């Protein structure tokens, strides 16, 4: 018996999600190397790309392709093999399987079939870029690549525009300038950290703003793969917008919006004061002579 985890009582195999380097080959774990050597089969997003990694670490395990264009049918086939007792490792071209790649479909089908799944952690471009960004890391949202469809892209941008979390996106060089312009139009000018060629020899980190970044890349042609880390909307800006929204209404008109819906006067005063950024005393002094 090898050191590979023993199969369950029904003799089904196990699916291993193995994180691979995003650039520097040294960013692979001993556990992943051992697992890739011990499984029966490796499902790779691009076998031509992954063979370089396997050759570097002298891994002789057979490979099969599993990618975006065959993910449904191939996942069914792989699950059949897993059910028959085959241990399979899933790898992507770079980084952690299941993050912005077809791996999630295989995981979903494996669970539906009662297959045991485990994840071997390692490199992930989104997390690595976030830690390098100099922006808030406590709360963030990951959108991978923005949709290519214009309407769908606008829908996503509309959802993100008021998000107070740091936003992480991926982008290819030939679309970078266009995407930066779309972000500027949607968000206004915000801080952005643009990280290029993560972990590779020419890794670069640009801490700038959306408007400045456009000027930079219009002068210098973008090259390599990019991760964009964008500052979320500030709570102060949201509060200011909320206050501005009611500026065209008098306090009396604002109060009537709520009292006409059955909200008690005391509670309505509290809501109006908060929305307008003033004290309840100020609301009271305006209303004291009104029949409301």
Structural summary, described in words:
With 292 residues, the chain is an alpha/beta fold. The chain folds into 3 domains: 14-123, Cobalt-precorrin-4 Transmethylase, domain 1 (3-Layer(aba) Sandwich), CATH 3.40.1010; 126-233, 2-Layer Sandwich (Methyltransferase, Cobalt-precorrin-4 Transmethylase, Domain 2); 236-287, no CATH class. The chain has 12 helices and 10 strands. The chain has helices at residues 30-38, 47-56, 71-83, 103-112, 125-132, 150-160, 176-187, 210-219, 235-245, 251-259, 265-276, 280-287, and strands spanning 14-18, 41-44, 63-65, 88-91, 116-120, 140-144, 166-171, 191-196, 204-209, 226-230. It has a 5-stranded parallel beta sheet, sandwiched between helices. A 5-stranded mixed beta sheet has the order 6-7-10-8-9. Strand 2, helix 2 (47-56) and strand 3 (63-65) form a beta-alpha-beta unit. Helix 3 (71-83) packs across helix 4 (103-112) and helix 7 runs antiparallel to helix 8 (210-219). The chain is elongated, with a radius of gyration of 26 Å. The N and C termini lie far apart (83 Å).
List keywords for this structure.
292 residues; alpha/beta; Cobalt-precorrin-4 Transmethylase, domain 1; Methyltransferase, Cobalt-precorrin-4 Transmethylase, Domain 2; five-stranded mixed sheet; 12 helices
Biggest sheet: strand arrangement: 3-2-4-1-5
How far from one another are the termini?
83 Å
The whole-angstrom Rg is 26 Å
The biggest beta sheet reads: 5 strands, parallel
Helix percentage = 40-55%
Q: What is the H-and-E element order?
A: EHEHEHEHEHEHEHEEHEHHHH
> CATH H level of the largest domain: which superfamily?
Tetrapyrrole methylase, N-terminal domain
Structural class: alpha/beta
- Percentage of residues in DSSP E strands: 15-25%
The backbone outline, from C-alpha atoms, is: elongated
